[in-house]
Amino acid sequence: MLKNFKITTKFNEVHDITESVKKAVEESGVKEGTCVVYNPHSTAGLTVFSPWDPDGFIDLDQEICRLIPTRVDFKHQHDTPQDAAGHVKCALLGISLTFIITEGKLLLGGSQGIYFLEFDGPRNREFFVKIQSD
Amino acid sequence: MSKYSNPMSRQVESLPELIRSQYEDLEPKARTVLSFQEIFNIQRIVLTGCGDSYAAAMATKHAFEMLTGIPTEVVTALELGRFYCKKHLGIDCRNPLVIAVSNSGTGARVAEAVERARKHGCFVLGVTGNPESLLGVNSDKILKLDIPSFESAPGTRSYMVSVLSLLLLAIRFGEVRLKYTMDQAMAYREDIKRQADALESLLPGMEDTCASVAEQWKDFPCYDFIGAGFDYATAWFGQAKILEATGKFAMHINTEEWFHLNFFARDAREMGTVVVANTTNPAHSRSRELVKYANVLHRPLVVITDGDKEDFGGEEAVYIKVPKTEYPITMPLTHFAPVCLIASYISELIGEKYGRGCEGDWSFAQGGAGVTNSEIIVD
């Protein structure tokens, strides 16, 4: 089963998609299997992060920007500096995540949420959830 | 095609296709002509040019300021070359950015202006079809124009391309400086492209209306063109086309100044009056008042607008519809089409040669010699 989700992101947003993925798994009827979450963009990423302290999201965003700051001397100049930095962030953070499905539910730790990382924005984005039975 | 078809009106008819092809040519060029570093370095912008290029600068000045937030001046080439204060040139690491427009690149005044600007430390971006010209060789970077050749006539196609190139630069500067998203930048660009279809659909009716106006106005001794903001640029361009195409007197004035000056003119019933007044123009309320009082004076009146009679309180006038755009900044791209048609049809009706054919007393201007053969002084 492949399911597509449309989202509208804000500038450099950490967008929570946990419930959408959980619901897709439960609705699939698959009891044991794997779930792949896939982002088809080149200036956005996916990650697992703790949801409990909202300031943690600020840390995440700031640390990503500290590692790959938006600079004006990127060689890729076709779009914008923000876009050029976004491509690098996307390459380093990755665009897919794999999860285990067991007993009909997504196997996710208590301090784990699934997040779509916007490295540009605001943009109209999408992501896919692929569910496979064992 | 109009019954008074001539090279200038045929240039107007070619505009929709020219918008499409020139967008494809210029968008990638405008995207890459300046680096991120060069765009972020801009503190001030000076737009300069002569004649139609000067009008293109006026038509896009507000777009530069609204999209980029960078203070932008329009300075004539003569002012920049001979008068502009030296201490304001070359400040803050190669500022201001001087964008000089000339398709031929051969005008002496523009060459002089950019040479002086560079000498005193400005960064010069030349917008020209001739990189080997004096403008080209005195520019740090060149946005190369490639306008397909066409029947010779007072600048119509070249003006549109000048406006297009400046609009694309303004959109690009704002995009790179993160004033809006890349999606928003593309929305501005799409608004430009949509005008090709919009103008194409309006042209048949526009030609009929302009032909009718030309028949009624052909013997008038004088014409008055009025507008505000970027509509003033279209008005300025209109008076230029009347002079070039018909050789008759023409005036240009902004909407407020008309109430201080031009409305005093006698023989108002024989003064073809063209008001360029788009409904989104911040000065629209003043344009409405002007149309009312132009009628009180019995002025023969044309209103070029994206609206209609109701937007002007039901006042009598010949209303010529031009494309309604999503973003007002892109309007100057096509709103000059009616003024070119009126000028071209009057020229055809009275049998006048464009630019007096550079014959007789005008022979000194043959081949553009009047603007190319001029002493260049760089101070």
From TrEMBL, chain A:
Q: Which InterPro entries match?
A: UPF0047_YjbQ-like (IPR001602), YjbQ-like_sf (IPR035917)
Q: Which family does it belong to?
A: Belongs to the UPF0047 family.
Write down what this protein is called: Secondary thiamine-phosphate synthase enzyme YjbQ
Organism expressing this protein natively: Ruminococcus turbiniformis
Q: What is the lineage of its organism?
A: Bacteria, Bacillati, Bacillota, Clostridia, Eubacteriales
Automatic annotation (TrEMBL), chain B:
- What InterPro entries does the database record attribute to this sequence? GlmS/AgaS_SIS (IPR035466), SIS_dom (IPR001347), SIS_dom_sf (IPR046348)
Q: Which reaction does it catalyse?
A: D-fructose 6-phosphate + L-glutamine = D-glucosamine 6-phosphate + L-glutamate
**Which CDD domains is this protein grouped with?**
SIS_GlmS_GlmD_1
| A Pfam family the protein falls into | SIS
Top-level taxon of the source organism: Bacteria
Residues of the SIS domain: 35-179
Q: Which UniProt keywords apply?
A: Repeat
Q: Does the keyword Repeat apply?
A: yes
E.C. no: 2.6.1.16
Q: What is this protein called?
A: Glutamine--fructose-6-phosphate aminotransferase [isomerizing]
Organism field:
Ruminococcus turbiniformis
